[in-house]
Amino acid sequence: MRLSIAPWLALSSTLLADSALAFPSPADQNPLHPPAAPSTPWPAKPQWRKLSNFLIESVWPQRKEYCQKAPKSPSPDLARNAPPASLLARYGGDVVLRFNISSTDDAQSLAVAADTLLLDIWEFSHDWVDVRLSMDIVAPLLGLLPASLQNAHTPLLRERDLAQAIYETYPASRQAQDQSLFSGHVSSPFTLRTPSLSLKPRDDPEGNAFFADYQPLSVIEPWIRLMSSLFTTHVRRVVVGKSHQGRDIIGLRVGVHPTNSDKPQPKRKTILIMGGLHAREWVSTSTVNYIAYSLITAYGKTPAITTLLETFDFVLLPTVNPDGYAYTWETDRLWRKNRQQTSFRFCQGIDLDRNFDYEWDGLTTTADNPCSESYAGSTPFEAVESRALADWAKNESEHNNVEWVGLLDLHSYSQAILYPYSFSCSIEPPGLENLEELAFGLQKAIRVSHGHNYEAMAACEGNFAVSKSGASKKNLFSRMEAAGGSALDYFHHDLGVRYSYQIKLRDRGTYGFLLPRGEIVPTGKEIYDAVLYFAEFLRGVYEIDSINDMDVKDESMMKSESEDGSAEVEPESTTEDAVQIPETSDVDEEAAEDSLRQDLRR
């Protein structure tokens, strides 16, 4: 029997409204540099968590046999650079548990309990589910689960403290190890590596300081402007629209168009690569930027890539959810949704990847709760950003001579290549065999590049299970969360993008969303190789003239394969470089450097 949370949500709304004057919500602030002496002391835990704990203990009293089963929180290594008090207050009592699922009943029980307790499901697959929760919620959770799950869980993050793992993803957490780090605001890590901003490093992204750390919007935005101003022959800055808070949703269009032609030009075949729909998935943003930089700097130097950019346009959008992404840098590293207000005053945000207008299922129990991490909104396209992206893509195809031929929607984590449909396994997409063929090709390209295995499957797999009434596909039900309204399904079905994929990047759960900075470049490399394979495959599908200079896939992978054919994982780069201007550029370097410094000071 499913437990309803409506009564205690109503009670919580009343209690929180009454307590609003006593505990005002803190303004967004940098979690690494909190105010030294706030005028009003904040509670160690958010108001919602305190009230939630009280209600949980009232409704589900903790039984003694469960109280001893909560894993011990590992203490931070005091010898390392310890996180500040603000991070410890927010995350210090949290843990990420992986539950091993062995049956449909286990999956259903965990889904009901997670929905009832408003838990944060990080990721899930056929046989495991990763859940982040407060230590004081572990016992009530186990009390709702069957005996088969009582001992079927283990802590992730290598049993490290969650606050420490979060702190290590911010560039400023390396201050003790890197004397070149500045002591100012974390929103300017572009200058972390050297006091003076040099615009003359190597072409290779591996030696570029921009990819040595995750970067905030305050660095990504001027970097995008810099790329479009330095490489005017084949790069343009694009603005998809505005976010809920008024930020531009920006990206880069990379490609070379014919000039001085009097003939009407056919629609330009265009591949869309985007990341950051979910704010906390930082590696998706860094990977989109890595792909953009690699394509941009290879033009005119690598014949095969030059030919590709004369054949296709690549539109690269690193942060489709800029408000949420900024919030992960300013306040909550693990924020997932956008920052839009919902019908419930104390629960903000809509899951952009559940709000597109194809098979939207926001009225289901798992998606209609504004406090849920996968809240789908009250109507399709209620989220400003999902509406802006859809309108822009449709306008490009209808009015700007664009033919969308491919979509790569990057997420993290679990290492999977997913093709339509997400909303259901009971319906097969048209051209399924071709989708599977390309998915397996992408899988191989990644494995050859760095030796990592990505699973290729339909997006619905892992989230759907067969009901007890029969094994027919018509008897499938959602295991963990509603899966309709995805960008993947919308672009494939409504916009007719035949080859649409969602790629879930590294890793498989050791670090989850908190992938170390040393994985930025290897992840970027393997997905860049997959992108080149993707474009070469589409060239064959659309019977575009062969690239005679050299095979794109072989060229891109030569550097990463060892002599015996096995792949090698490159170590983390420590080169203290910054963004490069090619020697052949006609741009005034001094003016560009001054302009970038001014942007960063803002």
What does the model show?
It is globular and about 70 Å long. It has an 8-stranded mixed beta sheet with strand order 5-6-8-7-9-14-10-11, sandwiched between helices. The chain has a 4-stranded antiparallel beta sheet with strand order 2-3-1-4. The protein has a two-stranded antiparallel sheet with strand order 12-13. The longest helix has 22 residues, at 520-541. 33% of the residues lie in helices and 13% in strands. It folds into 2 domains: 44-167, Metallocarboxypeptidase-like (Alpha-Beta Plaits); 231-503 and 521-556, 3-Layer(aba) Sandwich (Aminopeptidase). By secondary structure, it is an alpha/beta fold. The chain contains 17 helices and 14 strands. Strand 2 and strand 3 (128-134) form a beta hairpin. It has helices at 6-19, 47-59, 64-67, 85-91, 104-116, 135-144, 162-167, 217-230, 282-298, 303-311, 322-330, 384-399, 432-450, 487-493, 520-541, 552-557, 589-601; strands at 94-100, 120-124, 128-134, 153-155, 235-242, 248-254, 268-274, 313-317, 402-412, 416-419, 455-458, 464-466, 476-478, 499-505. Inactive carboxypeptidase that may play a role in cell wall organization and biogenesis.
